[in-house]
Specification:
Layout: H1 2-8, H2 12-23, E1 31-37, E2 44-49, E3 52-58, H3 66-80, H4 87-97, H5 100-113, H6 128-139, E4 148-151, E5 161-164, E6 169-172, H7 183-198, E7 202-204, E8 207-209, H8 213-219, H9 225-233
Parallel strand pairs: 1-3, 4-6
Antiparallel strand pairs: 2-3, 5-6, 7-8
Length: 235
């Protein structure tokens, strides 16, 4: 109990000092600077240079409980020195970020601070708005509200599409906007992202399930699913 009470009154710098001594007991403790910044997400950064340890965290974590900051300190310093840390710290930190109030706060931060490039639905070869309305009528009874639709600024083979709930936008990779890409393949990628609107991410404790069983079941209802996946592998 005394240890927990002491932890509550530690400054962020003191927490990082203690965790550093725990993970690197034979290494001189550097000068530590912890700053909270107005980032657009919950990312945190750490850097050791010229005897100074600089830590930058999103300001939404400024009021986080001390045990959460301690877990994040273990995660960041562990990554910095490639040290394996107890899983309890990653679990505790993920669980904190998955709390409903934190998810709402982070989504608001992404909406206000984040930048979202959406080119518009009409590409060189495919019109995402027309494809959306067709898929909406065929699979969702025409009841799905249309989000922002657009093509990515840069073509990507690894990320063919994504749905951004903070900006309510579906963006497809511009690599699909080519005459050589069959319409079926483009329809499938768009359909997959539309399912994220119908089946939101499931948060349970520290777990974050993007493709729920209901999502996977709906995906199997897409005609030509296997054929579309084969087409995408040839990109």
């Amino acid at each position: 109990m005394a240890v927990q009470t002491a932890l509550l009154f530690e400054t962020p710098e003191q927490i990082y000092d203690r965790v550093f001594r725990t993970l690197r007991p034979r290494t001189p403790v550097p000068e530590i600077h912890v700053r909270f910044r107005k980032f657009a997400n919950a990312n945190s950064f750490i850097r050791l240079r010229d005897g100074k340890l600089d830590v930058k965290m999103c300001d939404v974590l400024e009021g986080a409980p001390a045990p959460i900051l301690e877990s994040l300190a273990f995660i960041l310093i562990g990554k910095l020195f490639r040290r394996e840390i107890p899983e309890v710290h990653a679990h505790q930190y993920r669980r904190f970020l998955n709390r409903a109030d934190m998810r709402r706060q982070l989504e608001k931060v992404r909406q206000v601070r984040g930048r979202k490039f959406v080119s518009g639905p009409r590409g060189d070869h495919y019109d995402l708005e027309a494809l959306f309305e067709d898929l909406n009528f065929r699979f969702f009874d025409g009841l799905m509200a249309r989000p922002q639709l657009g093509w990515s600024r840069r073509p990507s083979r690894t990320l063919l599409g994504h749905y951004d709930p903070a900006h309510h936008a579906i963006v497809l990779s511009s690599i699909l906007d080519r005459a050589a890409v069959p319409k079926l393949a483009v329809e499938y990628v768009l359909y997959h992202e539309m399912l994220h609107l119908k089946h939101p991410v499931d948060h349970r404790g520290s777990r974050r399930c993007v493709h729920t069983p209901e999502f996977k079941l709906s995906e199997k209802q897409f005609p030509g699913l296997a054929e579309a996946k084969k087409m995408l592998k040839l990109l």
